[in-house]
């Protein structure tokens, strides 16, 4: 009876020790793993930004003008058309990746590098660009402008 | 052979007369066979001779069939009459048009703006006029050369589809094959003494890869440089205008450069002298300069003024290209390590712009034009390199700090474990 009780206690102690040891190992790993991932970053870039709130409001952009803004790590262009509508597009030319600009005299988007032209829907309308500019959704929320990538 | 020649001559006369009598109104879909029985089709589609039945089957997919035009629109005759009587020259039957008569048959509608407006108002109606200016049309008119291309050579007579249809022989992806059917045929071209490697060389070019591999239908194929109905080789002095349709900035730089006049006097074409014509390869900075494998080095020697300019322009591009690549690499490393460098990456775009503009400016063949872009790009790139290095320094500092903190935490845990063990260890006799 006495030896059975002693054996049962020993078995319980081994179990508790195993449980504590495993938990401790798990805790050390849970500290070391994120530290290692931080020290050795992934080779692929993080997912690009999908939404941005601009640093200026709707009142800061007059009809027939445009502003460049940062969308993630890429430049983008917010245009207020002469009719007053806001449109947001990627500012990276689809030809060789130059930064495009809005030309008030032309009323559309122009790339200085190789004279590429895009309309305010982003369509490549003249010059060498082979594809349209990526377009984004624009939402005015009070004094803020929120630009979002489309679905 | 002689009899066939006679028949051909007679049928040609009859055709011309028939066409003159028939007039455009006779070929109108609304006034033609579409309203009544089409005995041409009824008889020919059951004939077991493929030469006679094949065109009827092929015509089902033809754009003209879709608009209601029957066989009689081009071949004449009276489709309301069954039997051989329908094919009576007195009923306007003209048989199979050949040579000049193909141009007349097609042109009778396609050169009539009023008529075409009823079917496709946007379609041009100057094809015949253009054809007469082409090498094909001129050889046909001046030498009676019936081996040259006419309408049906490029637009298959009974299977014509709009150029926008991917199955069309004149869809951008199919134009090289269509032209190549004759121009890549050494036997057919032997009498003209012109090369037959244009199609194969074009398919090695950057233009074909853009068109076929990247699906960029704005990339040029044969007709974009040679014209389609007015097909002819671009002349030496205006080849720059042809390339300049797309490469406008470079063409403008070149036109104002000293090379433009020199090349004209030498009788060599502007763009094609350096970039070739059909097998235009992708360009890179390594083609600039006077070393081995460079284009400038074909004419210019090291140290001579032209060679010195080329070497200076190359050095400028190399320095800006290197600085941009370094800045981009530093910022990308910092970004992937979790550092906030997005503004620096956006700002670096100005250096990329400067690099692309400097590459275009080499067509001025002036070191100062290229140098201005290089200088502005280097300013931006150097700033970005500084920001990238600072971000990586910050990252290194944070990593070292984290390493020390983790080490201290692990040391503390180890100490705690040892202390706990010591507290639970049995006290031996004789120990204090």
Protein model, in words:
The complex is a heterodimer of chains A (151) and B (432). Chain A is elongated. Helix content of chain A is 25%, strand content 32%. Chain A has one helix at 2-39, and strands spanning 51-53, 65-71, 74-80, 86-90, 101-103, 108-111, 116-118, 124-126, 135-141, 144-149. Chain A has two domains: 1-44; 51-149, Rieske Iron-sulfur Protein (3-layer Sandwich), CATH 2.102.10.10. The mean pLDDT of chain A is 87. Chain A has 151 residues and is α+β, with helices and mostly antiparallel strands. Chain B is an all-alpha fold and 432 residues long. Chain B folds into three domains: 1-160, no CATH class; 162-233, no CATH class; 312-423, Up-down Bundle (Butyryl-CoA Dehydrogenase, subunit A, domain 3). Chain B has helices at 2-26, 39-44, 50-59, 63-66, 72-75, 100-110, 113-117, 127-133, 135-143, 151-154, 175-183, 186-189, 198-202, 206-213, 222-226, 239-243, 248-255, 258-266, 270-275, 305-336, 342-361, 367-424. In chain B, helix 1 runs parallel beside helix 6, helix 20 runs antiparallel to helix 21 (342-361) and helix 21 runs antiparallel to helix 22. The radius of gyration of chain B is 36 Å and the shape is elongated. Chain A binds chain B through residues 28, 31-32, 35, 38-39, 41-46, 70, 72-75, 92, 96-99, 112-115, 124, 127-128, 130-131, and chain B through 210, 214, 216, 218-219, 246-250, 332, 335-338, 341-343, 345-346, 349-350, 352-353, 356-357, 360, 399, 402-403, 406, 409-410, 413.
